[in-house]
Amino acid sequence: MTLKVDMGFDGAGGAALVDLEELLATRLLVQGNSGSGKSHLLRRLLEKSAGQVQQIIIDPEGDFVTLAGPHGHVAVEAVDYSVSEITHFARRCREHRTSVVLSLEGLEMEGQMRCAAAFLMGLFDAPREHWFPALVVVDEAQIFAPAAGAEVSEEVRRASLGAMTNLMSRGRKRGLAGIIATQRLAKLSKNVAAEASNFLMGRTFLDIDMARAADLLGMERRQAESIRDLARGTFLGLGPAIARRPVMLKIGPVETSARSSSPVLVPLPDAPAGDMREFLLAGLEDAAPLTAPAPTPRPQPATLVLEELARLPVTPIAEDLPEPVDPEPVMAASLRAIVADEEATGKTTAVLFQDFQVRCRMHGLRHTPLDLAGFTRRFAAARAGIFEGLEDEWAPALEAGRRVPDDMLGAFLLIARAASENRPCPSDQEIALVYGTSSLGRARRVLSYMEERDIIVARTDLSGRRSITIPALGWTTQPTEP
Questions:
Q1: Model confidence pTM above 0.70
Q2: Which of 117, 220, 287, 427 is deepest in the core (most CB within 10 A)?
């Protein structure tokens, strides 16, 4: 079955049609400066194909959430959810074939990139039985697939770029048809842009962007100037889903509108009678005066400070001071309480460290002997069920785990504890729980990471029972229970 999407009018006044089935197989790139009508084009495409195919929109500005009313899209504000919840949400979208709008409004650029990467990987990693066809629309794609280094961490940039590359290069086999829109081709990664076979080029003014647009449309360089003269809402289109030769498309009207709109001129308010200067400055004498910053005191010579300290009376030590608190039992009790708290799973290490300090003070320990790094390793051991004896019986295990990243230390100590106590090897579920995830695939990747670096050696017998050896300690777990 062939479905045609009515996008408006072509240069001859006829209907401008886009082959939806061909679009699912060949992907689409939309380019145009701010105000050229990219969002209007995407909205027209989504409205006219709603009900024919699942639609998934990654919306940096929250403009497309208005599709939720008349067309039944589920709008989700990403700022309210964690990364793991966003990944789980993506899998549910594929399973139930629900059209959704993921609004990234309210997140900084790094947060938007991290969220988009997790969401796209969740779509990409869905089980094969859920590989239904879907349009995946990414507005402002240059944010998520930058051509050069963005002002974010390298880890986040690579994750986002990798997810966008997967969408455009490998998504077709999984039913995911990428539709990406960008303000500037020069800012978009070439590896991502090159995977599209359909192009809609709107108004642009920079020479480098006009030249790239002309190359993609198969136009000569001298014809690139025509891209600068395109009216708002008018695009040059090319591709198997649009036309075999460049054609002009005038995008038709849409039913819904964005929450934000272009600025329009409105009449200025009538000026109040009298002198405007007096009106603007009226009442300023009642405003609180700005206080000048206190002058910085000049430092006193060290000899004067020592003389003043010597003249101070010596205060005798009170005999009724409380006995000093032993920190080890207090820290162990606090760690047990945090591990038992179900809400602690989704909290960051910094937040848990503050919780740990508060619990220690409640038990009478004013100053904990642990800094953030020390607490991270101690908490990893606590997740493995080791609360005491880290400097004694478990010191060899901690020494053997120095090559393990802090976030994997808990999984390593869980294995070491099972081997030390001659118990069966922990299951993937137990390792995932200690690692702080519900994904069994991540638990297996943790084991693969440690095995590749010869930290552990895993053995699976013919009955499928796994046992793990820690060569540095000479400890081996019992095989897993059948």
A1: no
A2: 117
